[in-house]
Amino acid sequence: MRILAVDDDDLILEVLTEAMAANGHEGVVTASSAEAACRMIDNAAEPFECFLLDIQMPEVTGIELCRAIRRMPQHALTPIIMVTAMSERQYINAAFAAGATDYVTKPFDALELGARVGMAERLVLEQSRARSSSEQVAEMRAELEGQRRVAFAEPLIIEGVDGAIGLVNLENYLLQLSRGGLFSTNIFAVKLAEAESLYARTTPSDFRYALADAAEAIASAVSTREFFISYAGGGVFVAAVHGREIESREYFEDVANVALYEMDLSDSKGRRLDLRLHFGEPVRVGMLRSGSAAVEALYVAIERIEDSLRDKEVRKPQHGKAPWLKILVS
């Protein structure tokens, strides 16, 4: 796997190179600044398949470099692993918001880092499917533009919505948070009503736009908090929301549905889209839960909302305005 490691400390670059070699990854390319890294990316005969970035570097930080790499079409999905001494939640949040796939703190264990890079390599292999570089770029562009239909149950990366990251990224984010960081974390699952019907009757791009609009509405509901949102597939989103005393599930649901109503959505044929979101009860991640338990909480939240909506049909208003519209007239 073609790896580019970026750090302004030559000793760290040497340690990274040796750690990668010990895990079977020879020939790691190194850069001592973001500027040098960008030149190497531009001049690479074949695209790099994984990036290892330090955060604290002079002039351009690793987080800024991560954001710049994500803007390159050929690296929209390339694994980016932050390898840094910064363990505070503000840095972790900023890194994942910029597009980081994973986060490892220094001093790092060579075996652990090798395992993280191994996971990244599996992602690369899944994405490549033995295609040429030009075919990969064309398919990535087509996917980002919404022209390729994916399975209804498949997770997708929502583009252009603040706080929206990939599901794997969200799992890695929760794994990285310390117990202190997890103390006030709440996991919500949010279901897009009649999502499977919407998927069946709309074009791939229309469905993706609808998901992006739903994610935007969820983000608006939780915007006063620190949060990340991912689309888990099957019409279900998951959100990690920080705060000891957060608003109720009903409040978030009402605000999100008002936001959707005010968007006045329609598909590419001009047909109105009446999207509606159902928020599940939060799964609270307390002091005694580790990062792995927080990842499990994502799927507990999904199971809860699926079970809840299966057990009872959601009542639709028969007269007057939809329940969430009461906010508009109150």
From TrEMBL:
<feature type="domain" description="Response regulatory">
    <location>
        <begin position="2"/>
        <end position="121"/>
    </location>
</feature>
<keyword id="KW-0804">Transcription</keyword>
<feature type="modified residue" description="4-aspartylphosphate">
    <location>
        <position position="54"/>
    </location>
</feature>
<dbReference type="GO" id="GO:0000156">
    <property type="term" value="F:phosphorelay response regulator activity"/>
</dbReference>
<dbReference type="GO" id="GO:0032993">
    <property type="term" value="C:protein-DNA complex"/>
</dbReference>
<keyword id="KW-0902">Two-component regulatory system</keyword>
<dbReference type="GO" id="GO:0000976">
    <property type="term" value="F:transcription cis-regulatory region binding"/>
</dbReference>
<dbReference type="InterPro" id="IPR039420">
    <property type="entry name" value="WalR-like"/>
</dbReference>
<dbReference type="InterPro" id="IPR011006">
    <property type="entry name" value="CheY-like_superfamily"/>
</dbReference>
<dbReference type="Pfam" id="PF00072">
    <property type="entry name" value="Response_reg"/>
</dbReference>
<dbReference type="GO" id="GO:0006355">
    <property type="term" value="P:regulation of DNA-templated transcription"/>
</dbReference>
<keyword id="KW-0238">DNA-binding</keyword>
<dbReference type="GO" id="GO:0005829">
    <property type="term" value="C:cytosol"/>
</dbReference>
<keyword id="KW-0805">Transcription regulation</keyword>
<keyword id="KW-0597">Phosphoprotein</keyword>
<dbReference type="InterPro" id="IPR001789">
    <property type="entry name" value="Sig_transdc_resp-reg_receiver"/>
</dbReference>
<protein>
    <submittedName>
        <fullName>Response regulator receiver domain-containing protein</fullName>
    </submittedName>
</protein>
